[in-house]
Specification:
Layout lengths: L4 H25 L6 H24 L13 H6 L7 H11 L6 H19 L6 H21 L8 H34 L15 E4 L2 E4 L5 E3 L1 H12 L4 H7 L17 E3 L6 E4 L5 E3 L3 E3 L6 E3 L13
Bound molecules: zinc ion (3 copies).
The site of one zinc ion has 9 residues, from loops.
């Protein structure tokens, strides 16, 4: 099949366009002007998505059209067509190109996208640290993608240079995150606290202080217990409300017998060996948990070993 001459030029442009966006985003994060953060988010997100599109282009240019039946080489070469949206891009990457993307990285990328949408269409409030954490995730995703999908073999000299700069910045951001998480872990151990997953940056960095939940990595705060519980269910245990409703399953969490917080006693991880209260940090082994023989609700068995939960006669 004879390709049009213009195609070659477009391919080249897409890749360097992607790298250029990423590099601009990086500069903007490090900029002293706070409003440059906004452009950092817009540009790092766009750069990452353009890289995905570069991969799709390798599969077939027609897949970049929102409606592939309307795809023509003329429209494609002019770039004058309605392209695929974010969700289609991700599903084509996964289902047609067969690329494996880490679930946790995609969750954070989606969070960057939400932030971008707010910036573009509404008002927003964001910390520099949240931008750093989410950008660091997108950059790492982009770097892995470039390396694993061998986009590097298409680099020219300028693109290689841009890539090296992106590598360096991503490493600096990583150090920033690791350092913060290290300090936090030490603090948590000393104070017998349990870091919960952050609903903003999805790092295990939220600690409750006087009933207030704040993320010590991205500095976002003001979460309520319900948000923290939902986030733990979804991010740590991989359970979504949708699945529970659809498959008629049961939530694994229940009320804490110690502090009585609603549904706050939750499996610590996917092994379901230990339960922890996300409100008071109570820890319970799973063999201490039973179903009440009267009301069938789960409860923590006390030492005298009754088979009824505290609310049943
Ligand atoms: Zn956070
Ligand atoms: Zn509790
Ligand atoms: Zn009962």
């Amino acid at each position: 099949m004879g390709k049009m001459e213009k195609t070659e030029e477009f391919e080249h442009t897409l890749l360097s366009n992607a790298l250029d966006y990423l590099e601009h985003g990086i500069e903007e994060i490090n900029g002293i002007n706070p409003s440059s953060l906004k452009y950092a988010v817009l540009h790092i997100f766009s750069g990452t998505i353009l890289l995905f599109k570069q991969k799709i282009l390798q599969e077939s240019w027609s897949l970049l059209f929102k409606d592939p039946s309307q795809a023509t080489k003329v429209k494609y070469a002019s770039g004058d067509f309605e392209g695929i949206n974010y969700n289609s891009t991700i599903s084509i990457i996964k289902n047609i190109c067969g690329v494996k993307l880490s679930r946790s990285r995609l969750v954070k990328l989606n969070e960057l996208r939400n932030l971008r949408n707010k910036m573009e269409h509404f008002q927003f409030e964001v910390t520099v640290d949240l931008v750093k954490v989410l950008s660091s995730n997108a950059l790492n995703l982009a770097i892995k993608f470039i390396e694993n999908e061998d986009l590097k073999s298409e680099f020219d000299e300028r693109e290689e240079e841009l890539f090296q700069e992106i590598l360096l910045t991503a490493r600096n951001f990583d150090h920033f995150c690791e350092e913060r998480l290290g300090i936090l872990k030490e603090y948590a151990l000393k104070n017998d606290k349990l870091p919960c997953t952050c609903p903003s940056c999805f790092s295990p960095a939220v600690i409750s202080e006087d009933g207030e939940y704040k993320c010590h990595l991205c500095q976002e705060g003001g979460f309520d217990l319900e948000e923290i519980i939902d986030c733990h269910l979804e991010q740590v245990l991989g359970i979504s409300e949708y699945e529970i409703v659809k498959y008629g399953g049961e939530y694994p969490n229940f009320d804490c017998p110690e502090c009585e917080a609603r549904l706050a006693l939750i499996p610590e991880d996917m092994s379901y060996k230990k339960y922890v209260c996300l409100s008071c940090n109570l820890e319970v082994e799973s063999n201490q948990i039973d179903n009440c023989s009267y009301c069938n609700n789960r409860f923590v068995v006390s030492d005298d070993g009754g088979q009824l939960c505290p609310s049943c006669p």
